[in-house]
Design goal:
With 178 residues, the protein is mainly beta. The protein has no helices and 14 strands.
Length: 178
């Protein structure tokens, strides 16, 4: 009898503040990220990576990305965050790392990595590696070898006329053994 799928879950939360001046906020994080160990022996973690927004561990398998303050007029001043403007929106991007490990030394060699939004948000679009996220898991990367760190790009598309305020959401991650 074949056992059920081997699955691990992770959570990456993020926030940015839309402002008129585009001032940077928040110190870079120095903590190392936590790891989630769930039945099935796959761990998802979010290690610190060069070139991305500040990352702060919030618990096992969980981390926060801080985009700081951004605006359509002045862009972003937070290290690792870039803004591209179009006539109708701004696209805020950063890079981050995902690490997948075998917690129990199991025989699983590769996994499929999927992501989803924890909260539906019709005002903004959220993408990871050009894959638009919804509340339904979307495949981000297939055949990911365990024990590797993969770099990904998070993009928020925000309408030009969005009011000032905080935008936050969380991305759930699912790793299923192939």
């Amino acid at each position: 009898m074949k056992s059920g799928p081997v699955i691990a879950l992770g959570l990456l939360a993020f926030a940015c503040t839309l402002g008129k001046q585009g001032l940077a906020s928040g110190p870079p994080a120095a903590e190392s990220p936590g790891r989630a160990v769930l039945p099935g022996a796959i761990r998802i973690s979010f290690p610190l990576s060069a070139g991305g927004a500040a990352l702060r561990s919030t618990g096992p398998g969980q981390a926060d990305l801080d985009f700081g303050r951004v605006s359509y007029a002045t862009g972003a001043r937070t290290s690792g965050v870039s803004v591209r403007r179009t006539s109708s929106a701004m696209h805020i991007t950063t890079r981050f790392a995902v690490q997948l490990d075998s917690a129990g030394g199991g025989s699983q060699r590769t996994v499929t990595l999927s992501a989803f939004l924890l909260h539906a948000d019709s005002r903004q679009r959220f993408k990871v590696d050009d894959v638009e996220l919804t509340t339904t898991p979307q495949v981000i990367q297939a055949q990911v070898p365990l024990g590797t760190v993969s770099m990904h790009r998070l993009e928020l598309e925000i309408p030009k006329d969005a009011p000032a305020g905080t935008i936050s959401n969380a991305i759930g991650w699912v790793a299923v053994a192939d």
